[in-house]
Write a structure and sequence with these properties.
The protein is of the alpha/beta class. It contains eight helices and nine strands. Strands 7-1-8-9 form a four-stranded antiparallel β-sheet. Strands 4-3-5 form a three-stranded parallel β-sheet, with helices on both faces. α2 crosses α8 and α3 packs parallel to α7.
Length: 235
C-alpha cells in the first residue's frame, strides 16, 4: 500500500469512504475535500464490464464536454495548403508539414493534441513511434484525422476529451476543475457516462457500468451510484 501524505489522510477523514454517493453529492464532496494550493483537475474513473484483450470489446473514443475541462490545450496540426490556413485561422498553436515532422524528430513536442489531414498521414506515420506512446498520434476513430481541421481545432480547444478503457476495463477521464460549479461538473460527467453507454460493445456481457469513482488530482476517490445517470442532480 502506498503511503499517503497528511493532506490526503485529512481528506479521507472528512467523508465516508465506504458510502456510495449520488453524482451531485460526490462532486460536492470532491470539491470540499480538495486541499491543494492549485486548481485541481476532477477525474472520473468508470470501470466497465469489458475484456479489452478482445478486439471487439475495446472502448475508445472522444467527446466534447458541454462545459469543457478548464485546461488550456495546445493543438498541433499536420496540414498543407488550404487546410493549413484554416487550422491557423481556427487558433491552432502549431501548423506544419515536413518541418513539423522534423521538429518532432528533434525532440520538440510542444503540444497536447495533434490533428492531421488524411494526405499527411504517410508523413505522420514516420513519427508514430514518438507520438504513439505519448497518446498524441492522430486517429480516425477519434476524429483527429480529418479534412475539417478547423472544426476539430475548435472542439479540442473547447474541451474535447479522449476516453479509453485500460487493461482493467477502467476509463480515467478529466471532467473539469475543482473551481467549476458542481452542476457543470455533474453535467460533464453525465455527457461522459451517456457516451460510454452509447458505445457499449455488443459482445459485452453482464453488468456494463460496474463502478464509478470521482477524485481530484491530489484527493482520494469518492464512490458514486452508477445507476443514477438520468437524474444526475438529485441528492
Amino acid at each position: 500500500m502506498p503511503k499517503h501524505g497528511k493532506q490526503y489522510r485529512n481528506a479521507l477523514a472528512k467523508f465516508d469512504q465506504y458510502k456510495v454517493y449520488s453524482p451531485k453529492e460526490a462532486m460536492e464532496t470532491v470539491k470540499e475535500i480538495a486541499s491543494a494550493k492549485f486548481d485541481e483537475t476532477v477525474e472520473v474513473s468508470v470501470r466497465l464490464g469489458v475484456d479489452t484483450r478482445k478486439a471487439d470489446q475495446n472502448v475508445r473514443g472522444s467527446i466534447s464536454l458541454p462545459h469543457g475541462t478548464g485546461k488550456s490545450v495546445r493543438v498541433a496540426v499536420f496540414a498543407e495548403g488550404a487546410q493549413a490556413a484554416e487550422a491557423e485561422a481556427a487558433g491552432a498553436d502549431i501548423v506544419g508539414s515536413d518541418d513539423l515532422v522534423a521538429a518532432i524528430q528533434a525532440g520538440e513536442i510542444n503540444f497536447d493534441a495533434a490533428i492531421a489531414t488524411p494526405p499527411m498521414m504517410a508523413k505522420v506515420g514516420r513519427i508514430g513511434r514518438i507520438l504513439g506512446p505519448r497518446g498524441l498520434m492522430p486517429n480516425p476513430k477519434l476524429g483527429t484525422v480529418t479534412m475539417d481541421v478547423a472544426k476539430m481545432v475548435n472542439e479540442l480547444k473547447a474541451g474535447r476529451v479522449e476516453y479509453r478503457a485500460d487493461r482493467y476495463g477502467i476509463c480515467h477521464v478529466p471532467v473539469g476543475k475543482v473551481s467549476f460549479d458542481t452542476q457543470k461538473l455533474v453535467e460533464n460527467y453525465g455527457a461522459l457516462i451517456n457516451e460510454l453507454i452509447r458505445v457499449k460493445p455488443s459482445t459485452a456481457k453482464g453488468r456494463y457500468v460496474k463502478s464509478v469513482t470521482f477524485s481530484s488530482t491530489m484527493g482520494p476517490g469518492v464512490k458514486v451510484d452508477s445507476s443514477k445517470t438520468r437524474n444526475l442532480m438529485e441528492d
